[in-house]
């Protein structure tokens, strides 16, 4: 099984508590996901804030408009510092996403580190080269733009 790692950083001109409140709220996931992905949270009665052990289920269309189930678990959380979501059911053989906040002068450095493995061995590695890697960069570029407009263009 081939696995890959994708990293993205963004400086946010806001205080740590404000950034944490935004990224740790399940309700904001849809706001930072491109509309064409048809992202819908299917979990009922989600709390305002994530917690360790929380399971979140979604419907999403990552490729060609085909809806798929995606279930993640918040496996680690340290208030105002980081949380990790890991796929339990979904399109990847492995999905481990670290969301890290580092206080900086005049703001916060937000880091995303995604370690993933496509399904289907060699075919998945080829698919990663042809489209998965590009799609992930596109999704995170969209997230970067949304966060930029929300926090950095005042």
Walk me through the structure.
The protein has 154 residues and is of the alpha+beta class. The protein has one domain (4-152): Alpha-D-Glucose-1,6-Bisphosphate, Chain A, domain 4, CATH 3.30.530. 26% of the residues lie in helices and 38% in strands. It has 2 helices and 7 strands, in the order E-H-E-E-E-E-E-E-H. The protein has helices at residues 16-23, 121-152, and strands spanning 4-12, 40-41, 55-60, 68-78, 82-89, 94-104, 107-117. The protein has a 7-stranded antiparallel sheet, with helices on one face. The chain is globular. The N and C termini lie far apart (45 Å). The model has no long low-confidence stretch (mean pLDDT 94).
Question: Any idea what the CATH superfamily is called?
Answer: START domain
Distance between the termini: 45 Å
* Secondary-structure content class: alpha+beta
In CATH, the architecture is 2-Layer Sandwich
Helix content: 25-40%
Q: What's the overall average pLDDT, rounded?
A: 94
What overall form do the CA principal axes indicate? Answer: globular
Strand proportion, as a percent range, falls in: 35-45%
CATH top-level class: Alpha Beta
Main sheet attributes: strand count, strand direction, barrel closure: 7 strands, antiparallel
């Amino acid at each position: 099984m081939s696995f890959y790692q994708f990293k993205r950083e963004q400086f946010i001109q806001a205080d740590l508590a404000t950034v944490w409140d935004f990224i740790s709220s399940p309700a904001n996931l849809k706001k930072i996901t491109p509309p064409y992905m048809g992202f819908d949270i299917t979990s009922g009665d989600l709390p305002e804030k994530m917690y360790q052990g929380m399971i979140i289920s979604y419907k999403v269309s990552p490729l060609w408009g085909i809806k798929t189930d995606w279930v993640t678990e918040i496996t680690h959380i340290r208030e105002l510092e980081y949380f990790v979501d890991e796929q339990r059911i979904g399109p990847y053989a492995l999905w481990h996403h670290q969301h890290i906040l580092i206080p900086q002068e005049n703001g916060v450095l937000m880091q995303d580190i995604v370690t993933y493995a496509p399904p289907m061995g060699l075919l998945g590695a080829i698919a990663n080269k042809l489209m998965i890697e590009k799609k992930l960069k596109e999704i995170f570029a969209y997230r970067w733009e949304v966060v930029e407009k929300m926090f950095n263009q005042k």
